[in-house]
Amino acid sequence: MNGLERIVIENGAQRGPSSVGIGAEFMYDTIIIGAGMSGLAAGIRLAHYDQRVCVLEKHWAVGGLNSFYRQGGRSYDVGLHAMTNFTPKGTRKGPLARLLRQLRFSWDDFSLAPQIGSTIAFPGIQLDFSNDFRLFEEEAARHFPKQVDGLRSMVGELVDYNDLGLGTTSGSAREFVSQHITDPLLVEMIFCPLLFYGGARERDMEFGQFCIMFRSIFLEGFARPLAGVRLILKRLVRKFKDVGGELRLKSGVDRIETNDNGHAECVILEDGTELTAKNVLSSAGWRETMRLCRAPDEHNESPAGQLSFIETISVLDREPKTFGHDRTIVFFNDSDKFCYEKPDSLIDVRSGVICSPNNFVYDDPLGESMIRITTLANYDHWNALDERQYQLAKFAAYDQTLESAVRFTPDFRNYVIDTDMFTPTTIQRFTGHENGAVYGAPDKRYDGTTHLDNVFVCGTDQGMLGIIGSIVSGITIANRHLFTT
Amino acid sequence: MTGDDIRIAVLEILGDIAPDEDLGELKDDVSFRDQLDMDSMDFLDIVMELRKRYRVQIPEEEYQQLASMTSTVAYLVPLMKDIEK
């Protein structure tokens, strides 16, 4: 397809390709920007109910923030270490059960294996937790006997918080927690996994985000498909195509053309192709979407996210359990205070997340042994490096990260047979998120609306987190705004 | 469609929405909410599936008629009696 494709606006067209004359002249009910978890989920909902839907993906691969690649004959996952929000088969409540019903999946379709158990490790103190919250309560009671009543009262309060993330959520999570828990060390230990797995702003979270994250990690839990994130993506793509959705890879959006009435008229791709749709749903991020709309500054004043990470991936010649490491995830921090901030240097190895994809309760062993370690990183510093400096910085960062992490795990460095690594600039490239901000902008847009009457946002900047959260985000915004009857 | 046909049609919809549920045990006079923990998003899906499959329009103020199988069938019989199975 060369040059411009003029796509006809045809209000009222509901389903079926509306070919008019020669050439490809289409009209969509909804164009979705980004084939990540949220965009694909929204696409499934809409296409299932007979909308003509097109998902546009800038890259050659789907997944966005949560993706996978092959290198040197090995498969690597990118994105989250584990799926949060895990609930066992037969559970009817919670985000996982909801998304399975909404997308018509059976629990078995995701082949989820629960975690063995995870640890929050601070100097001289470790709190273990698993997918059974009682373990965390016992651990807290053992190390912080005076705090356990406060922990219980806090859980009692956040358990009923609306899990669609559509309610009032502002307010400081640290203030909320400190009303219940008075020992600052326990507060830091609770915040450590939550911020690492979903903190879009430095040090603190919004109250609503805290509730969602606390439930997804401590009250529900971690799981992973044996085949990794790619299995979930594969299921979503297959379902989307089965219900008649159209997926266009390598189709980056250059801009969304708008008129003076606050209405988007068409989407222009980077190759000049022009597509029209009644509605546009963007998972590109808030500021990124505003830029695509060439929105006036007043709609784009909210700050960009600043928190980015590096991740080292070490392929090992033996299973972690064989050298005494059975933890699924270890969240470590080497002082009593956890500094969740954009570092002044390339990386901050004082804290981090050690994930062992092998340490889930699989029916069959994972073919490959791996340890992935994430630490905070500074996008600006990484972005300023030239190619040679960048390669050298990656080597140095890899070594520093492992040196720091093995203070909290058995030293596995002699078992490493292959490595890879990604940095904030990699994240920026694959997610499109400004500053490589994994969790997007600090201010979320829970209702999914924009200043344009037919442009909506879903995904990270709508406010839901994690794989399940992203999928629920796409479902929720599709249900709420895109089923106009 | 008769009441029995409609019951089967609704069971098919429920089976698609919740493939992990054993609907053989479903009690017709107990609410879906109590038996299957269905929430408002699920009820909306039943409404939308009925529209998609049978072109039946159900206004929002009448969603409460879909509380249980018995009430759903009773509500749908006049709306669907002229539909071919």
Structure description:
The complex is a heterodimer of chains A (485) and B (85). Chain A contains 13 helices and 19 strands. Chain A has helices at residues 37-48, 95-103, 133-143, 148-158, 173-180, 184-198, 207-220, 229-242, 286-292, 379-383, 387-405, 424-431, 466-481; strands at 28-33, 53-56, 68-71, 74-77, 112-114, 118-122, 125-129, 223-225, 246-248, 253-258, 264-269, 274-275, 277-282, 308-316, 329-333, 347-355, 369-377, 416-422, 455-457. In chain A, helix 1 (37-48) runs parallel beside helix 8. The longest helix of chain A is centred in the C-terminal third of the chain and has 19 residues, at 387-405. The relative contact order of chain A is 0.19. Mean pLDDT of chain A is 90; it is low at 1-26. Chain B contains four helices and no strands. In chain B, helix 1 (3-17) packs across helix 3 (40-54) and helix 1 crosses helix 4. The radius of gyration of chain B is 12 Å and the shape is globular. The mean pLDDT of chain B is 94. At the A-B interface, helix 2 of A face helix 3 of B.
Binned, the helix content of chain B reads 55-70%
Task: List low-confidence stretches of chain A.
Answer: 1-26
What is the CA–CA distance across the termini of chain A? 34 Å
Regions with little confidence, pLDDT below 50 for 5+ residues of chain B: none
- Count of individual helical segments of chain B: 4
Number of strands of chain A: 19
Strand order across the largest sheet of chain A: 7-6-15-16-17-14-18
Structural class of chain B: mainly alpha
Order of helices and strands of chain B: HHHH
Helical segment tally of chain A? Answer: 13
What is the helical fraction of chain A, as a range of percent?
25-40%
Range of strand content of chain B: under 5%
Radius of gyration of chain A: 22 Å
Q: What is the approximate shape of chain A?
A: globular
Radius of gyration from the alpha-carbon trace of chain B, in angstroms? 12 Å
Structural class of chain A: alpha/beta
Largest interface (C-beta under 8 Å): A-B, 17 and 14 residues
SS strand fraction of chain A: 15-25%
Q: Major beta sheet of chain B, specifics?
A: none
